[in-house]
Amino acid sequence: MAIDRTLTVAQIVLDHPECARVFQDHRIDFCCRGGVAVDEACTRVGADVAAVSSELERAVDERRGAAAPDPRSLPTAALVAEIVARHHAYLRRALPFVQPLADKVGRVHGDHDPRLRELSAAVHELADMLTPHLDEEEQVLFPALAQRDPDRALVRRELQAMHTDHLAVGAQLAKIRALASDFVTPEWACTSYRTLLSELASLEGDLLRHVHIENHVLMPRFAAPMQAA
């Protein structure tokens, strides 16, 4: 299947969720900076447009026929419940596991590769960003969105805060990926090190999809999409 390269990368992921992994692998932001076409997105990160397009088409072809729920079809209450049950719950499980693992790898292998100590600190910084963010959404934003007549000022303020947080999280994910050498494990890595990189790659993938759904499905129901420069 040919991918329409005039569509934004965010729209492509909405239509074909399986394309998210391709963009993730090429460091193409389909969440907070997803309002650009494939060609421009590739140019920004120095990726080969033809190669990325081929990977996108292959991902769609391989996925064809498989049932995939479309978040755009869910009513707001169900969409919010899905975000909390799937993505928030995942983070609340994953972060307490990956933080001590990052500490262990940094402590054991930090002399061999000092970036691993930086990686450990960066993982803790990400958790410090996300924990209050999840609480704020669950306790303030999501209940406000569920009201029949939402407080527009409150919703606008909370959506702006959500978007600002998303930008910070995106930057932190990029920092973690760089410190983790794109999650490629060196030959000398122990089991803990390999597990850490695998967990971080999975965390990045889930978090990118999480932010994408909030930015491009949930937010537009209540406000104009906010786009990063």
Describe it for me?
This protein has 229 residues and is mainly alpha-helical. It folds into two domains: 55 residues, no CATH class; 151 residues. The protein is 69% helix and 0% strand. The chain is built from eight helices and no strands. Helix 5 packs antiparallel against helix 6. The model has no long low-confidence stretch (mean pLDDT 92).
Write out key terms for the chains shown.
globular; 229 residues; single chain; 2 domains; mainly alpha
Short précis:
The protein is an all-alpha fold and about 230 residues long. About 70% of the residues lie in helices and about 0% in strands. It folds into 2 domains: about 10-65, no CATH class; about 70-220.
Proportion in β-strands = under 5%
Query: How many beta-strand runs?
Result: 0
Distance between the termini: 31 Å
> Main β-sheet: number of strands, strand sense, barrel status?
none
> Any idea what the radius of gyration is?
18 Å
Helical percentage: 55-70%
Shape: globular
Any low-confidence stretches, pLDDT <50, length ≥5?
Answer: none
Could you give the topology of this structure?
Elements: H1 9-15, H2 20-25, H3 38-45, H4 49-63, H5 76-109, H6 115-145, H7 152-179, H8 191-218
